[in-house]
Every structure is written in C-alpha cells, then in structure tokens.
Amino acid sequence: MLVMGILNVTPDSFADGGKHFTFEHAVQRGLQMIEEGVDIIDIGGESTRPGAERVSEDEEQARIIPVIRALAGKGADISVDTMRASTARLAIEAGASIVNDVSGGAADPAMFSTVAELGCKYTLMHWRGHSKDMNEKARYDDVVVDIIKEVRFQLDKALAAGIKNENIVLDPGLGFAKDAEHNWEILERIEEFTALGYPVLIGHSRKRFIGGDTPDDREAGTLDISKSLVGKGIWAVRVHSVAPHVELVK
After folding, report:
1. Where are the alpha helices (DSSP H) in the chain?
2. What is the spatial distance between Cα 200 and Cα 25, in angstroms, rounded to a whole number?
3. Which residues are the active-site residues?
4. How far apart are CA 71 and CA 27, in angstroms?
5. What are phi and psi of 136, to 5 degrees?
6. How many CB atoms lie within 10 A of CB 8?
7. Which residues contact 181 (CB under 8 A, 6 or more apart)?
8. Within 10 A of 156 (CB to CB), how many other CB atoms are there?
9. Which of 67, 74, 111, 182 is the most buried (most CB within 10 A)?
10. How far is residue 66's CA from residue 81's CA, in Å, rounded to a whole number?
11. Could you tell me which of 100, 77, 76, 106 has the C-alpha nearest to residue 88?
C-alpha cells in the first residue's frame, strides 16, 4: 500500500487551509514529505471541501504549477489534484505523472481525451457534483452498488476515449455526496471495489465522518482506518500525515 501525501496549495482546504498556500511553504512541505518517505505527493490548488466555491482556471494553475515544477524529480511521484483538463496538461508538462480527478471526468468534457493523449496514470473518483451542493445528492438505494454502477459508466467513457486500462485507478470518493453512514459502509465493503480489478485509492484523511471537533482530532481515527485497509488490496491511501502512515505501512 502506497502513501499519497496531500499538499493543498489553497487558503481554504478543510484540514490544512493556508498552511502551505505560499510557494515557499508548499515546497518546504513537499520536501519534508519526501524526507518522511512519501510515495506520491498529490498537489491541488482548489479546495473540494463541502460548500467550497470554485477558483478560476488561471488561479488554480498559478498556485500549483510552480510547486509541481520545483518538486518534480526530487524523489517522489507527483500527482495533480484537478478537475480541469488544461491544468492536467500543464501539470504533466511540469513533471507530474498522475492526474487525480475527483470528478471522474464529469466536470470537464476534455479531460478523458487529454489524459489519453498525455498517456499518464489517471485516478477516476466517484462524483455527483461540485462541492457547493454535493451534500444534497447523498441519496442511494445501495451505496456500494450505486457507486460501482456510476463509476463503471465513467470508466467505460474513459476507456472509449483512449485511456489505457493499466493507467486507471478508481476511488469511491469518501465524503463526496456521501454522509457518514455511506462512508462507513463503503469501507466495510471495500472488497467490492477492489474486485473490479483496478488499483483503488482511498481518501479518508481527517474527514468529518471519523468524528472529533476539528480535523486534528481525527488523526488517530485516520490511522485506524488506514490500518484496517492494510492487506485488503488497496493501492494507496491519500493522507495529510505522511510519517506515521509510512511507519504503519512498514
């Protein structure tokens, strides 16, 4: 199981908004992650916390492309956390090797064809809409069955656009148009996702369903969930705290 470290170059992300917003602080944190043994650094310039407003394309790119360029080749693979095809292209050109698209190709009709052209690894997450109103869409008959059906629909489109089968990673999208009960059920039935035959990424770190009043209060719960995923065929966990997760995996 790989450790994907979260690097939010934003002023408003839910767990660490503003801590790494400047270029200098973001690069410093990225280098620290590398020293701690991170496998992948996931760099994003747009908060996807519930209720968040979107930033402009230019602002997103100004935040992250210089950071990606600075950290590329320093010892860790770089993933770009974006829903925009244009940002994905610039990020790969700057040295990233993975596009982590929380919209699963639904937010930008050019994403699949762009990723196919770039030939990079692509993380396709389950998504029902932007952060501003996604909580209103947390309605399912059977959350796991419904998510798999919707992921398969986007997956078929991705493959039809030319993205190579071996380049695809799936993410059930914990916390995205899902309430606490949905998130726990997904984790309890995670084998139904790994059975699809693709690498699976899990992004549970410090999310509200874990409990606790603040994101920092959820760190122990985050580690407990990560521990429960070891040996279940998970490709990577996307987390804020790198060092304890590297130690856990070891």
Report:
1. 23-36, 57-71, 85-94, 111-118, 143-160, 180-188, 191-194, 219-229, 242-249
2. 30
3. 207, 238
4. 7
5. -70, -15
6. 29
7. none
8. 10
9. 111
10. 14
11. 100
Residues 35, 98: Cα–Cα separation, whole Å: 21
Q: Tell me what pLDDT residue 16 has.
A: 54
Q: What distance lies between CA 234 and its chain's CA centroid? A: 14
Q: Cα–Cα distance between 101 and 122 in angstroms, integer?
A: 7
Structure tokens given for 225: 């969930």
Residue closest to 101 by CA, chosen among 41, 58, 63, 44 = 44
Helix (H) or strand (E) holding 83: none
> Residue 126: which residues within 8 A CB-CB, separation 6 or more?
104, 147, 150, 151, 171, 172, 173, 176
pTM value is 0.93
Using one digit for the tens of pLDDT, what is the confidence trace for 179-219?
999 999 999 999 999 999 999 999 999 999 999 888 889 99
For residue range 14-47, list pLDDT tens digits in order. 555 556 668 999 999 999 999 999 999 999 999 8
175: which 2 tokens?
Answer: 């916390």
Distance, in Å, from the CA atom of 250 to the CA atom of 210, rounded to the nearest integer, reads 24
- In one letter, which amino acid is 223? L
Q: What is the CA radius of gyration of the chain?
A: 17
How many whole angstroms separate alpha carbon 164 and alpha carbon 158?
9
Contact yes or no for 68/44 (Cβ under 8 A): no
Asked if residue 171 lies in contact with residue 126, where contact means CB atoms within 8 angstroms, the answer is yes
